[in-house]
Structure formats: C-alpha cells, structure tokens
Amino acid sequence: MAAGGSDGAKAAGRPYDLVVFGASGFTGQFVVEEVARTAADGELRGGLRWAVAGRSRQKLQAVLERAAERLGKAAPGAEVGVLLCDVSDAASLAAMARQTRLVLSCVGPYRFLGEPVVEACVENGANCIDISGEPQFLEGMYLKYNQKAAEKGVYVVGSCGFDSIPADMGVLYTRDKLKGTLTAVESFLKVKSGPEGACIHDGTWKSAVYGLADQDNLRKLRKKIGYAPVPVVGAKLRRRGFVFYSPEFKEYCIPFMGSDVSVVKRSQRYLHTDLQETPVQYGAYVNIGGLGSVIKLMLAGILFVLLVKFSFGRKLLTKYPEFFSAGRFTKKGPTQKQMDGTSFTMTFFGEGYSEGQDPQNGKPNVKICTEVKGPEPGYVATPIAMVQAGVSLLEDTACLPKQGGVYSPGAVFSKTKLIDRLNKRGVEFSVISKAEV
Fold first, then answer.
1. Could you tell me which residues come within 8 angstroms of residue 286 by beta carbon, excluding any fewer than 6 positions away?
2. Model pLDDT for residues 334-349, shown as the tens digit of each residue
3. Other beta carbons less than 10 A from residue 269's beta carbon
4. 165-380+426-436: which CATH topology?
5. Potential cystine with 372: which of 126, 149, 234, 346 (Cβ 3.0-4.6 Å)?
6. Every domain range in the chain assigned CATH 3.40.50.720
7. Tell me: the pLDDT tens digits for 131-151?
C-alpha cells in the first residue's frame, strides 16, 4: 500500500498523521488552531497525531500556546510535535516529510516558496495540501510532479482554502442536487463586514501582484501541459462584461479575479476524462455594491495594472499595500474584531436538463440555486477548509482517486465526505431553490 494509505504510513513508522508547515506564519497560526480544535473533537479514528514545523522553535511554541489558550486549555499538549525545518534547506524538508502522512503547507507566496515542499513530499511519500490561489504555481506543480506523485501514490492537492474549495465543491454540490444533468453554473461572491470593516494580510496582495505580472508565462505553461479541451455540453454559458448590474442582487458585479475558474475547470476536465462525467461550464463573479464602489474599484484597478507591469511599480505595490489597496490589504492583517464581523456567501445559479432530456438538444429546462455560506474567508474559513480537506484525505482513503497525482480539490474529494465535514464546521452548503423552466 502507498504511503498515502492509512495502514501503509503507520507501518512505515511515521510518527505523525499531519504536520503544519509554516505554522508560525500569519495564516499558519490559524491553521494550527483549527487542527488543535479538530484533534480535541476526537473526530479521527484512533486520534490525530500531529506536529508543527517551521524555522524557530520559540515562535512555534508561542503559536501552540496561543492555540491552547484560544481553546481554553492551560497549555499545549505534549503530544504535539515541534519540527525545525526551513524551506531553503532540502534535507530538513525531506526529514519532515518522512515523519508524516500529510503536510499542510502554509508558506506563501507559493510561486517563491511552495515548490520545495511539494518536491520533498513527493520524494518522501507524504501527501501535501496547500491553500494557494496562484494558478501558475498550481498548474506548474501539475506539469512537474503529477507523474512522479502518481508513481509514489502521493496526493498533492492545491487551493484547499477559500480559494477554491467553496467554488469547486459548490459546483459539485449543485450538480449532485440537480435531478438531471447540470451543464452550467455561475457563482456570485458577497463578503459582508461588520462596523470594523475587513482587511486581508498582504501575503495575498503579493501573490496577486506577481501573478498578474506573470500572465504571459501562465499561457506558455498551459501550452506545455497541452490540456485537452473540455467539451461544451448544453447551451453555451455566455461571458459577461467587466462590470454589469445584477437584478438578483441589485448590485454591480465584476468577474472574480482569483483562481476559482481555473481550478473548477481542472476538476471538470478530470471528472470528464477520467470518470466520464458530464463537464459543467463555470463563471465566477463578485458583488461589489453601488456605482460609487464601481468607480473607486476602476480607478484602483487601472493604477494596479499600470504599476504591475514594471519592477519599480511592483516594488511600490508590495511596499505600500495599504495605500494602493485603499486599506483592504495590510501588513498586520485583520484584527480579531474584524474577523468576527466578517462572513461570506457564495450563491450558485445552475442550469441543466431534467432526467431523460438530451443535453445536446434544445434549451436547458431546469434551474437550481444553491449557496455556500461561511465565516471570514481568509483566516477562519480557509483553515477550516484546509484542515477538513486534510481529514478527508486521511480518513476517506477508499473514496480518493485510485492513483496519486497533483489534483484540484473537486477531482480528489468529489466522492469523499468533505462537504459533510465542512457543514459541521460552519462552512455550510444548502439548496435555495429548484425549478423546471
């Protein structure tokens, strides 16, 4: 049995089920807290043996103490391991990977820091999950490591945070709840913040700056991979303009700039080619509010696009995130109060064909609306999504794809209990309405 399988890894003498790498980073500390909460709930058969990993023992210890305090415990349990390793030291990463069945990789921007972790995991038989929203990193890892991961029986699953579990699993949930054949879905994201407002740590901002600057290389990378085109089944989903008014929400919307569309497309391609399932077309949008918000966003967007093209512009953007994002991205990240007051709703509008109808003929005749709701996306929902993806990988081994590889969440988790697990943790999937047209 491969190291990814439960018995194989334990027999191979791996002391840990899961290691959080980059545990003392901004997002890492919240992931640690979520792992501690999950371990305390005793959901895993035989308990969860876990460790934290990073460069400084002092910082790792502090993160464990903070997590214990937040869970109402006097001190972190002695059962949590502390591993010292550095992303620039391959031997230390290999030593970490050899001790665990799964690494939760929390070090970004992934385009600069992610690959050594993936390589160490693949070479040393540990599964790997990350929360990257960077298509170039995700697809680059697929090109370089998919074959090797398959041979080793290792699962590498990217974008297991807010990017892109709600979108990817939301499309699958919508498909499973439609009686018939789902052929197209559009999602609309709305983030609500309390009186304190909301903001995001500047690590995400850096990823966006470098990602946009590198669009040309992403095209080249996709050419190299040579993806087979995904067939369009049913009525073709029309692309909307850059800004449009949504009568459903009575707000203006723009295309969602994150990795959701590319991740969902990869999942749909896998489900179509490997499992012969009908592929679903997908468009992702975000609600931005009234006309004032549109104007502000357009001006900020134009400035961003101009600066990203030049290295001095990128330096300015990364040095002063707060100024260039009108306070939305900060080097400190959100306060606890801001996080407590923030939540998200992703609404999915799907269309398709009722049972017995041929999707290749005529117009779609059924509609469905579903929703994924959850707490603050970046540092509450993301750790929940990442940790529950990890639990599904460790616990639902019989439901995973037959061979290892570099996967998107929908491809690897479509048959697991991930959605049930997320529902129990406050990232809730529900059907709002269904109708025959």
1. 188, 189, 190, 191, 253, 254, 255, 256, 257
2. 989 999 999 999 999 9
3. 17
4. Dihydrodipicolinate Reductase; domain 2 (3.30.360)
5. 346
6. 16-159+387-396
7. 999 999 999 999 999 999 999
